[in-house]
User: Fold Homoserine O-acetyltransferase from Bacteroides stercoris.
Amino acid sequence: MPLNLPDKLPAIELLKEENIFVIDNSRATRQDIRPLRIVILNLMPLKITTETDLVRLLSNTPLQVEISFMKIKSHTSKNTPIEHMKAFYTDFDKMRDEKYDGMIITGAPVEQMDFEEVTYWDEITEIFDWARTHVTSTLYICWAAQAGLYHHYGVPKYPLDAKMFGIFAHRTLQPLYPIFRGFDDVFYVPHSRHTEVRKEDILKVPGLTLLSESEEAGVYMVMARNGREFFVTGHSEYSPLTLDTEYRRDLAKGLPIEMPRNYYVDDNPDKGVSVRWRAHANLLFSNWLNYFVYQETPFNIEEIK
Assistant:
């Protein structure tokens, strides 16, 4: 079924070119069904790119999905046109009385700072707490996963000696769990981060379940509250060329950056990218929507608590 997106969102035309079925609000209002309401708090600097990546993965769903975009007042995006933000994003203050079936909170380019040093830390932790009573299931990605684990459960993050950068093999620790329905024994995920959370800290917290890890990349997925919270340290949503763009950008700036591991064909950037994570990225998001949002959320959305 299609995604219900704000009229004229750039992702609509971009994804139509990929033959992904999306509709705008005007058409969606003529369909007599109760859509799943998903809110995305997009903290990434390139908003339109992240919107398109996430919408692409949310498109394979059994029901109509209504997407809303949230922003925080205490930070102004420098890399996205202000007209785009005004047209498609709403301040948290104006959304706090709403309830949602699902929520996605993205990464942010602040991971090398202490959490409390982030200028919008107070506002974002308020949103973390709000989500617990206003959202059926919340998916925290990359920095948001580290921030959520720290805020809710006191799990610290640690700096890495070198950036975790590339495509890494992962395995499931709970293979029969519904979030992994259809997964292979080994699956691949992009990572791009300077910090990590550690297995030993996760295992100390009774309310956390470690679901997946990687020998090279460490902790990948942690669950809490029977699936009402998922913390995912990688970027399954990345498009094929995202790491390539990051790599070439940092090279051009003269920054210390190693070539992304296990990414290029024969480790040669001139030969292009070997995409090994697309199928499992689609499974991750469709399983989350199906088993932890659609099958768990009440028909009357106001009953979420």
User: Anything to note?
Assistant: Residues 3-298 form a domain with the Rossmann fold fold (CATH 3.40.50.880).
